[in-house]
């Protein structure tokens, strides 16, 4: 979908542009002709440093902000570094959202994650399920930081009339993913595992958990397209997404839009598809003593579909592209 709201010369700050989502956002913005991007690496601007962030926003005065910088990781990383996950994410959000307000940013998109929803939320999970039950304990510090980010967007919209929107992507994968053997998410971890097993000629691969939990996956370029589609919505359509907080009627809707495919599969089915893509023909076994996380995580994406956007990249095509990217990175690293 082409831009209808953001001007082609708008000053757009993509926080976290070197990451999986950030790099996809930059690719999409450039492809759509937005040439005035403001980009800072982590070492150029540490977003947990309040004074530096204040100085940056006052000097750069971006028109639009996409907050795709965060401390992100899989179950192992979340279990090992809970204090880092809550501290760093809260600090980044506090600094970026408040300074965006001070700098008069027109629209801000805050990237959260589907783990904000209760562990046993009805499936598929709708935006109004936010804060209706206990969270999954393995990533609760991360989820609570993200929930605080949504609440900040909502509160600033109410108190200051800002136009900040939170988007909740499902599990993402794509070029430039983190393939670290322990710190990564499920698809990049499976790609590495099956690739190494094939190269080493192993007969079997053992995976964590029972393989029965259901997950949904979205290709990162689709995620970036969805973000730009939302940021580009005309004013009236965009306004309908910004949340309601009517103490008279008791009608509360957070400024939140789920972004996903709208369909899920079991981890076992996913593993089989990744093994096929990679060309690993051995056995796939499951270590049931390891944790599964939530039994199912599927987003209800009707709010997004209603705005006129649907994901285009199927899992098979996405896995093929992701694996090609992994192989190129492996080859250039050796
Ligand atoms: N990947 C997923 O499956 C997924 C799913 C749902 C939601 N999300 C959300 O999407 C957003 C982006 O995720 P991602 O997968 O693209 O993560 P990523 O690949 O780890 O990228 C995160 C980016 O943030 C930067 N960053 C981290 N800490 C920073 C700091 N203190 N100051 C400045 N920059 C910092 C990183 O820079 P360095 O690498 O140089 O540190 C990197 O550019 C996050 O909000 C995440 O919660 C991701």
Biggest sheet details: 6 strands, parallel
Strand content: 15-25%
- Unreliably modeled segments: none
Supply the CATH architecture of the domain at 12-176 and 217-262 and 299-313: 3-Layer(aba) Sandwich
- Bound compounds: NADP nicotinamide-adenine-dinucleotide phosphate
User: End-to-end distance, in Å?
Assistant: 39 Å
Q: Helical percent range? A: 40-55%
Radius of gyration: 20 Å
Class of the domain at 12-176 and 217-262 and 299-313, according to the CATH hierarchy? Alpha Beta
Mean pLDDT: 94
Number of strands: 15
Description:
With 334 residues, this protein is of the alpha/beta class. It has a domain at 12-176 and 217-262 and 299-313: NAD(P)-binding Rossmann-like Domain (Rossmann fold, 3-Layer(aba) Sandwich), CATH 3.40.50.720. The chain contains eleven helices and 15 strands. The protein has helices spanning 20-31, 50-60, 75-80, 82-102, 140-160, 186-200, 220-231, 235-239, 267-278, 302-306, 315-333; strands at 12-15, 37-38, 64-67, 107-111, 164-169, 171-173, 204-208, 214-215, 217-219, 244-246, 251-253, 256-259, 265-266, 283-287, 296-297. The strands form five sheets. It has a six-stranded parallel beta sheet with strand order 2-1-3-4-5-12, sandwiched between helices. Helix 5 (140-160) links the parallel strand 4 and strand 5 (164-169). Helix 1 (20-31) crosses helix 7, helix 4 (82-102) runs parallel beside helix 5 (140-160) and helix 9 (267-278) packs across helix 11. The two termini are 39 Å apart. The structure holds NADP nicotinamide-adenine-dinucleotide phosphate. The site of NADP nicotinamide-adenine-dinucleotide phosphate has 25 residues, from helix 1, helix 4 and strand 6.
């Amino acid at each position: 979908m082409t831009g209808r709201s953001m001007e082609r010369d708008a000053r757009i700050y993509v926080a976290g542009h070197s990451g999986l989502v950030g790099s996809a956002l930059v690719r999409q913005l450039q492809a759509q002709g937005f040439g005035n991007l403001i980009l800072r690496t982590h070492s150029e601007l540490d977003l947990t440093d309040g004074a530096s962030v204040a100085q940056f926003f006052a000097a750069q005065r971006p028109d639009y902000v996409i907050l795709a910088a965060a401390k992100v990781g899989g179950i192992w990383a979340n279990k090992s570094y809970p204090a880092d996950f809550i501290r760093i994410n809260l600090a980044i959000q506090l600094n970026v959202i408040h300074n965006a307000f001070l700098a008069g940013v027109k629209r801000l998109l805050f990237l959260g994650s589907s783990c904000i929803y209760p562990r046993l939320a009805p499936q598929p999970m709708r935006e109004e399920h936010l804060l209706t039950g206990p969270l999954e304990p393995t990533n609760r510090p991360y989820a609570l930081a993200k929930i605080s980010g949504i609440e900040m967007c909502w509160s600033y919209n109410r108190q200051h009339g800002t136009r900040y929107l939170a988007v909740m992507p499902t599990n993402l994968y794509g070029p430039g993913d983190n393939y670290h053997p322990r710190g990564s998410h499920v698809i990049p971890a499976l790609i590495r595992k099956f690739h190494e097993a094939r190269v080493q000629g192993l007969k079997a691969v053992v995976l964590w958990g029972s393989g029965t939990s259901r997950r949904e996956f979205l290709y990162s370029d689709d995620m970036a397209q969805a973000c730009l589609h939302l940021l580009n919505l005309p004013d009236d359509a965009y306004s309908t997404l910004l949340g309601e907080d009517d103490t008279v009627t008791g009608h509360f809707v957070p400024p939140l839009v789920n972004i996903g495919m709208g369909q899920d599969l079991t981890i076992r089915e996913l593993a089989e598809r990744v093994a096929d893509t990679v060309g690993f023909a051995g056995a796939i076994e499951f270590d049931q003593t390891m944790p599964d996380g939530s039994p199912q995580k599927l987003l209800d994406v009707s709010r997004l579909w209603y705005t006129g956007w649907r994901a285009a990249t199927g899992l098979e095509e996405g896995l093929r592209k992701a694996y090609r990217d992994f192989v190129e990175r492996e080859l250039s690293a050796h």
